[in-house]
Amino acid sequence: MQRINQTTRVTKFILVGFSSLGELQMLLFVIFLLLYMTILLANATIMTVIRFSRSLHTPMYGFLFILSFSETCYTFVIIPQLLDHLLSDIKAISFVACATQLFFFLGFACTNCFLIAVMGYDRYVAICFPLRYMIIMNKRLGLGLISVSGATGFFIALVATNLICDMPFCGPNRVNHYFCDMAPVIKLACTDTHVKELALFSLSILVIMVPFVLILISYGFIVNTILKIPSAEGKRKAFATCASHLTVVIVHYGCASIIYLRPKSKSASDKDQLVAVTYTVVTPLLNPLVYSLRNQEVKAALKRIFWRPVPAKLI
After folding, report:
1. Over residues 276-286, mean pLDDT
2. pLDDT over threshold 80, residue 24
3. How far is residue 72's CA from residue 68's CA, in Å, rounded to a whole number?
4. CA-to-CA distance for 125 and 135, rounded, in angstroms?
5. Are 261 and 209 in contact (CB under 8 A)?
6. Rounded CA gap, 46 and 21, in Å?
7. pLDDT tens digits, 135-147
8. Which of 21, 231, 246, 295 would you label with 98, given CA atoms 20 to 30 Å apart?
9. CA 45 – CA 68 distance, rounded (Å)
10. What average pLDDT does the segment 220-237 reach?
11. Cβ partners under 8 Å of residue 262, min gap 6
């Protein structure tokens, strides 16, 4: 990320973002602030419940804890600056700060993609090999999968950021987005970008499609196993354990595919910003809500921790 091309003339970018909305920016500030506070509270609640509820000390909830932490960091890279720019007339960001934001945004985004795939594998083992679940998904394997997800995600982010920052930027410097994302920044490069765009597109396929295909394979085995369960109640419970994860998969990979797996000729920056709001704001909020509202174990743990009856001697 430090290898910024010496021919670079642009020292800062202007994040156009929601500037065209004029006075509505104040309303957006209030909305995004409330959403951000809700994201922080919801993810903190999930992490607290998992940490202090012994019944949730299983691989599945360990992965959910890490995902919630990663989502919190992910939003921290984007939303505070967005809030600042909504109140500011000057929406500038230095070249180095833009590269840093791009690196951490991609790093946490890629890590989340891999973590969601890991959670799909966890559901596969839990349903297809229930008696061997704790043996297969032991602590060593769990920590290894988390480490590989994080290391691979940030390595890909480093490669992608270097590919972009190695290009010369000599003007204009207005980024048609509310943060430094790949496509709107590349458009400002004053050189032929086709080769690097192809390389970045290949990385996007690796990050989005490979985990998604692995999830589909896992759920293929899961569905096959569930259909063999004789009782309807057993089938319902098995499907219920996957419902939360499937909801997150559809929203997360759906939004990512719309933005990063689309031909350049069909790009539409204004619409991209609306989709970007979904995967930078809505998805980090969706994860803890889905896993808390649709998951009976988490709801039970929430009640035990936050709604414990007050002992009579303290009343």
Report:
1. 82
2. yes
3. 6
4. 10
5. yes
6. 35
7. 999 989 999 999 9
8. 21
9. 10
10. 84
11. none
